[in-house]
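Sync notes, pocket subgroup
Present: LS, DG
LS reminded everyone that the earlier model was apo-only. Rerun requested with alpha-D-glucopyranose included. Inputs:
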Amino acid sequence: MRYAVGALLFLSCASFGAVDLSHVPQIRETAQERDARMQWFRDAKFGMFIHWGPCSVGAKEIGWSRNANRPWDINGVQTPRTEDPVYDNYYKEFNPAKYDAEEWVRFAKESGMKYMVLIAKHHDGFAQFDSKVSDYDIMATPYGKDIVRAYAEACHRQGMKLGLYYSTRDWYHPEYLVGDNAKYDAFYRAQVKELLTSYGAIDVMWFDHVGGQDWGKWKFDELFAMMYALHPKLIVNDRAARFCGPRTPEDRGPPSPETARMTEGDYSTPEGVIGAMNLARDWESCIHVGRGWSYHGEDGFKGPEDCIKMLVSCTTGGGNLLLNFGPRPDGTFAEGEAAVARAMGAWLKVHGDAIYGTRGGPYRNGAWGGSCHKGDKLYLHVCKWPKGGLAFDPLPRKILAARTFANAPVAFTQEDEGLSVTVAENARVAPVTVIELTLDRAIEPGLLAGGLRAP
Ligand code: GLC
């Protein structure tokens, strides 16, 4: 028996190579442990993404406006690194004298966001933190202070969940995929380690792709083992190994099932769109308010009502919204962008009970809106009223009471064939009429009871 256990242990270690992955949650945790680890994220619904860096000096898109070769990212061709003499020198002018991290966090809180994700390094390779392994960092700017440190301290002081974005894809680093990639692999893991050891508790690591399509070039097992040794409850998105895949015959080829599972991370990241309803896999849509991810000037922002509807679509579909802001080079927010955040905060002050802590469903969402639930409450978020009101498939719970958030009466009939719900036209409000139904008992997470019935 003892030998059998020994052999088993040996085999499982062998299959992971030398790296001990036994504490990596994506591989070993139970469903209950996973629910506990993911709970704050599932409850949060709404986060603030911040794309910021020297590029804002030129009001240019972060990373992508850098006019130089992008190894592996231009038509997948392996091209050597070159420089952009303009973009690569913005950092010499980056001096965000008005950057006030405490104010940022206060503003995010006031706007109803429960977590934040700040760019620590984008594809342009510039570190917004004091990196000991790179000179291309915030300490080389006239500003000369660690932006990530101030942000982390403010998040901690104000109880804000703290996320860091780190782009593994790095078009600036001379070794990245086109030099000695092993050196780059060690470099980026060292930077991730700096982020995870210098700033106290970190709640989310938000990776953003690796170029190249060769698993053999990367030590993802070491990355995850390191991250989870330092922060056992860390939540990681799905892009740590994204865009990797065997490509040439000499590639080491597809990852082990464990590595694949691990690097799929904890949640999916539909980008620029609302994720499709999914009650089984966690997800978060990242969408920018402005014309791009980073600062592009003082206009061109989405309207607050559209952003509120996006939050509703994400929530009812089982996901989160990570709404992106691109501060000005001085560290303040453009008025049009700030106005969106303020309007969402005001809406959430009234409707927050129907968003935070809920779970998506039980009805399929769509153009009409969507549903979500918490305890004995079922919330209907109605964005567009079908003629004659809402007619749903049957609800496997008894409705005891109904009201809108503006305390208008709600007419409903609950029969074997289905549920119909309506509100007088003059009691419907833009952008969303939120209805609260009190049920005889709670709905279990993941339940899908159908959707709108054909009229
Ligand atoms: C993409 C883009 C990047 C952006 C990110 C945010 O990967 O390349 O510029 O930061 O999405 O989701």
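DG: The longest strand covers residues 115-121.
LS: The domain at 5-354 is CATH 3.20.20.80 (TIM Barrel).
Action: DG to write up.
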